[in-house]
């Protein structure tokens, strides 16, 4: 993490600075789309986003990437250790885990509810034993902890021009939309891990089950029934993006370019999947580099304009929700 970002955020303790740098490195290495969008935020807000992402990445790696041959017991023990470290960090502000140290500092600075992190850890634990979901309602229950809470954690960092509780449902929905995009893109990789996130009833409606997915993955052959099911899941995901869209205008103006860029890039995964013929069981669809560059350039222009206007615009709601009855300035219209 650059000294400029840390200095702007008022992070002076050497151990904390090292912890935040560690989180930034995780974001840069694993969350390329997220990292690109984060760079459009004002510098003082970036360390907090890196801390939130770094913790989520660390937990996810325990579940998925602990090492060849790691059994469920070993993964569960590692998650239990992380959970204990999290509880200590949130309670005392201390941890030997850099990602927890940075996360606890961010939670304190922005008043993020500890329950959001506990719900996330519960979802990570579910990934150790739950390998599929009967229907969309069951999947949404899982995604509350794995995705919706990420949007809710981010909201105090981004700031809002409406009371936070008004923006919260849209932030949660956007977190879900991002994860649904990843689920569609990663069907093949998740299958190799023993998991199917596409709802079983949606698949069955097209005559698809886990065995057929496995056959397609192993043989490299396409199956029209699978394509039809993937197309329906894509349509479902686009609907979630539409539900989340009004929330962009509720964010602080200086934060909107970042989230708008992430919105367009993650939604662009759906376009990439469709353009690639729904071949997600055989290869990963990627947003073309030219498209990523164009979206990023537009986001940068919007970010610069927003910062120039910031001195003339009404202040956004502070990190902590305003007192009851205290209105925030009205949201400006956001044009996609």
TrEMBL record:
Region entry Disordered, spans: 311-336
Domain of life: Bacteria
SUPFAM superfamilies: Terpenoid synthases
Pfam families, A to Z: SQS_PSY
Pathways per UniProt: Carotenoid biosynthesis; phytoene biosynthesis
Keywords in alphabetical order: Transferase
Database matches in InterPro entries: Isoprenoid_synthase_dom_sf (IPR008949), Squ/phyt_synthse (IPR002060), Squalene/phytoene_synthase_CS (IPR019845), Trans_IPPS_bact-type (IPR044843), Trans_IPPS_HH (IPR033904)
Residue ranges, compositional bias (Pro residues): 315-330
Protein known as: Phytoene/squalene synthase family protein
């Amino acid at each position: 993490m650059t000294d400029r970002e840390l200095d702007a955020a008022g992070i002076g303790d050497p151990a904390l600075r090292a912890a935040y740098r560690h989180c930034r490195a995780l974001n840069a290495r694993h969350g390329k789309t997220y990292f690109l969008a984060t760079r459009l935020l004002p510098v003082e807000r970036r360390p907090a986003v890196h801390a939130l992402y770094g913790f989520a990445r660390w937990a996810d790696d325990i579940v998925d990437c602990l090492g060849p041959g790691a059994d469920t017991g070993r993964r569960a023990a590692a998650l239990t250790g992380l959970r204990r470290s999290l509880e200590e960090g949130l309670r005392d502000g201390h941890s030997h885990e850099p990602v927890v140290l940075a996360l606890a500092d961010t939670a304190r600075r922005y008043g993020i509810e500890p329950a959001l992190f506990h719900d996330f850890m519960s979802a990570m634990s579910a990934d150790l034993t739950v390998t599929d979901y009967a229907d969309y309602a069951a999947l949404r229950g899982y995604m509350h902890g794995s995705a919706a809470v990420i949007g809710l954690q981010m909201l105090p960092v981004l700031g809002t021009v409406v009371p936070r509780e008004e923006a919260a449902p849209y932030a949660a929905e956007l977190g879900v939309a991002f994860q649904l995009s990843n689920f569609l893109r990663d069907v093949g990789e998740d299958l190799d891990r023993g998991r199917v996130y596409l709802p079983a009833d949606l698949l069955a409606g097209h005559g698809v089950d886990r065995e057929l997915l496995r056959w397609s993955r192993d043989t490299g052959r396409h199956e029209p029934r699978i394509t039809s099911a993937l197309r329906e899941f894509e349509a479902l995901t686009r609907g979630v993006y539409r539900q989340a869209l009004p929330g962009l205008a509720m964010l602080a103006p200086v934060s909107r370019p970042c989230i708008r860029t992430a919105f367009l890039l993650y939604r662009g995964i759906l376009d990439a999947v469709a353009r690639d013929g729904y071949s997600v069981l055989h290869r990963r669809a990627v947003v073309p580099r030219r498209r990523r560059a164009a979206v990023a350039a537009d986001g940068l222009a919007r970010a610069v304009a927003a910062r120039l206007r910031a001195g003339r615009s009404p202040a956004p709601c502070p990190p902590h929700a305003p007192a009851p009855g205290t209105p925030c300035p009205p949201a400006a219209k956001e044009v996609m």
